[in-house]
Amino acid sequence: MYPTLFKIGPFVFGTIWIFVGISVYVFLKLLVKAIQKNRGDFKFLYQNSTALIIGFFIGARFTHVATNFSYYFYDFSLHSFLSTFTIWDKGFSFWGGLITVLFMIYMKTRTRKESFKKWMDYMTEPFLYALPIAYLGKFLDGMGYGTKTDLPIGIAFKNMNVSIIDPVHPTQIYSMTLLIIAILIFRHVQKSKPKLRQIKGARSSFAIGLISTILLIEHLFRGDPTVEIFNVRAGVYISLVIAIASWIYLIKNIKKSK
Predict the structure, then answer these.
(1) Which domain holds residue 240?
(2) What does the alpha-carbon distance between residue 75 and residue 86 come to, in Å, rounded to a whole number?
(3) Do 123 and 204 touch, CB atoms closer than 8 A?
(4) Per the structure, how many domains does the chain have?
(5) What are the pLDDT digits (tens) for 71-94?
(6) CA-CA to 84 of 20 to 30 Å: which in 59, 139, 206, 225?
């Protein structure tokens, strides 16, 4: 599709990086609004926002390299070691980044004696809203493509990083569409169930439940190389476990509040 959005002289602006940058900006903008609305502590955000963003990318990159170990360490040499830092190959694991950020938030809130659930509620809703933008960038770049399909909706990517030349499922579009539907559901539930906002951790578990369920569906159609366990993508197992845990946690929280 369009892995390069535009060029200015010798500088090349990759599509995925532009859209990820826009999604990060939208996330931070909405996060500031959420903190203002709930009269939260801006000091915590200012002190940790940069570290959390960097932590997300480090965790996402480390997990990707670890789960594709044989690809990066085809031989034990300085060249193979340095290849783990070539982030322009766009190898990142969403769950690796998210789990890293969750751990960092937990440790920082514990140190400052802040409420972990409260900050999760602040952050997950903006995160849900920003994800479709990143997925549009993934589609234009050709990242996270699907398996072969004969359906009319199939798209043949011409990118060098797409190993399948035949039409494939546009999994990025599937996920982007489902995320937009999830946002509408999330907004409707918040308006129709105002008590949900009063339960700490309810909104975040609801949002994570929606996101992980969508990623589970996405991974069932993905065709790009990854680690498989019993011929099933590792992402399927991870998404399934997180989805089940999120929905169970949400149900228990709601029951406790009654």
Answers:
(1) 4-145+153-257
(2) 17
(3) yes
(4) 1
(5) 677 677 777 777 777 776 667 787
(6) 139
